[in-house]
Amino acid sequence: MTAPRTVLLTGAAGGIGTLMRELLPPYGYRLRLFDRRPIEGEPDAVTAELADTEALRAAVRGVDAIVHLAGISVESSFEKILRANIEGTYLLYEAARAAGVRRVVLASSNHAVGFTPRPPDGSAAIPVDTPRRPDTFYGLSKGFGEDLAALYWDRHGIETVSLRIGSCFPEPTTVRMLSLWLSPADCARLLHAALTAEHVGHTVAYGSSANTRLWWDLSTARALGYDPQDDSEPYAAQLLAAQGELDPDDPDHAHLGGTFCTNPPMWPH
């Protein structure tokens, strides 16, 4: 697939969106930015809620593809998750359908399968077709997004790569992140692969770097053309000295979703 020229980046003021504003343009993309919050230094960014269908449809009009990062990124009340992540994603797909956009890259999450038991060291990696076991309303909304993407492929021919992103930060900050870390540079590589791969239909892939302690199977992402270059292992010694190994008998460490399964962080807004 020829690289899309203009890409709508929703959630452009968020953590991953801020990183991708700098890292995606070198791949040849012209970004159109969308967020509920104003973006400093970006006067042409669209500042609106996903529920503002007029603003959303104007933002989608004329783009070649969409990277959808917008929404609540941790746990919240069901009502807030419903509006932002479930209804918001539906409105995004409706806008894409109306505008004739044929490719979406959807930010799913490892929390769609968060209650999957954490694999013991040396065991087989978690496959992408493992049954969904959301750990929160947030994780539930990401499973909905994957199913919505499948529906819009089957019914309307909109191709989507749903990326179950691990932890995308400049560097890992916990021992758990050593297994799920997605470096910003690898995130840009993964998004580029998802935007340009041929014949994806609806594809679900895990999103992380090539970590030595990786818990899940990256083969689906690699089949898209993703070639991760980073590994969390250089950070391991310092984090392990400060925090210790994960205790399999600790409920916080028993599942893929970590503390989202026991005491999830709450959306502050």
Describe this structure in words.
Helix 3 (78-99) packs parallel to helix 4. This protein starts with 5 loop residues before the first strand and ends in a 26-residue tail after the last helix. By secondary structure, it is α/β, with parallel strands linked by helices. It is 33% helix and 14% strand. The protein is built from eight helices and seven strands. It is globular and about 50 Å long. It has a seven-stranded parallel sheet, sandwiched between helices.
Keywords:
7 strands; 8 helices; 269 residues; alpha/beta
Low-pLDDT parts are none
Task: Describe the largest sheet.
Answer: 7 strands, parallel
The radius of gyration over CA amounts to 18 Å
Provide mean pLDDT, rounded.
Answer: 96
Number of DSSP helical runs:
8
**Quick one: overall form?**
globular
DSSP summary, beta strand count: 7
Percentage beta strand = 5-15%
**Reading side by side through the largest sheet, how are the strands ordered?**
3-2-1-4-5-6-7
For the record, give the distance between the C-alpha atoms at the N and C termini, rounded to a whole number. Answer: 39 Å
| Class based on secondary structure composition and strand pairing | alpha/beta
Fraction of residues in helices?
25-40%
Order of helices and strands: EHEEHEHEHEHHEHH
Summarize the structure.
The protein is of the alpha/beta class and 269 residues long. It is built from 8 helices and 7 strands, in the order βαββαβαβαβααβαα.
